[in-house]
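Slide 14.
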Amino acid sequence: MSSLTPVAAIGALVALGLAGWQAASTPPNIPRDVPIPTDPAWAVSLPGVAALPARLNSEAPRPPLILPNDTTRLGLACGIEMRAEAVPPAMVALEIVDPCDPQQEIAISHAGIRVTAQSDGMGAVAVSLPVFANPADILVETTGGFSQQISVDVPDLVDYHRVAVAWRGGANLNLVAEEPGQRMPTDLQNPGRPANAQLGIGGFLTALGTPGSDARAQIYTFPRDPVVPNQRIRLHVEITAQPCHATTAAQTVELLDTGGTRATDFDITPAGCLGDSRDLVLQNLLQDLRIATR
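Slide 15: predicted structure.
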């Protein structure tokens, strides 16, 4: 028997290995028209593994995301949340959120004064409300039918004088307070700061209601025990805009020394149209504040 040289032996082994690899890698002759079983009995059940569909179609449309009826697109829960707390000087910080009904009109009523405000795109509105009673009863109503009254203790109300003018309609009213020693009156253009009232050095004006809304108000606050006593603060109301021949229903509300309030209703019916260039001063609607040492 003839013997192989080392090189020939190595070549024979390589040829034999390639032949075996080709035989093993050749796919079986499976007919292409054999259907894929979809019977659940063929499914393989593994612990913790969800069953897979029998056939995947990458072009199939995705099902729409269906949210519950009580959530927003951002997943926020529907329903009104309201928070109220007393803050100085004798005010109530009111926050109302209704994420499923944004930009709705919200009415706030207290001591006969009613104002309306519009919530933002997230359904939220925040109001700093100067109050006229302790405890302060506040009614909140929405166009969606929600109505709730809350009561907040405001113990520092005894430290302040307070007067308001409220109105309904398209007119623009401006409550003006002329404080002694001040170069400019306290009004919508120069409202002052609540901190000044806390320090006893001046008053401030709060405007309530979204501009252009149906019901608005302005409230003036002044400390009862100021740094400079024996002052007289002159108060009057101006009309800076009024629809032609339209009647505006208005009222003033004053906080009395006894702790009660006095309200005066009046109507404004001008003969013509008022613009920003002409103001109408309403005299004798409010008594001047006379501040003396307590």
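Speaker note: Confidence is low (pLDDT under 50) at residues 39-58, 64-68.
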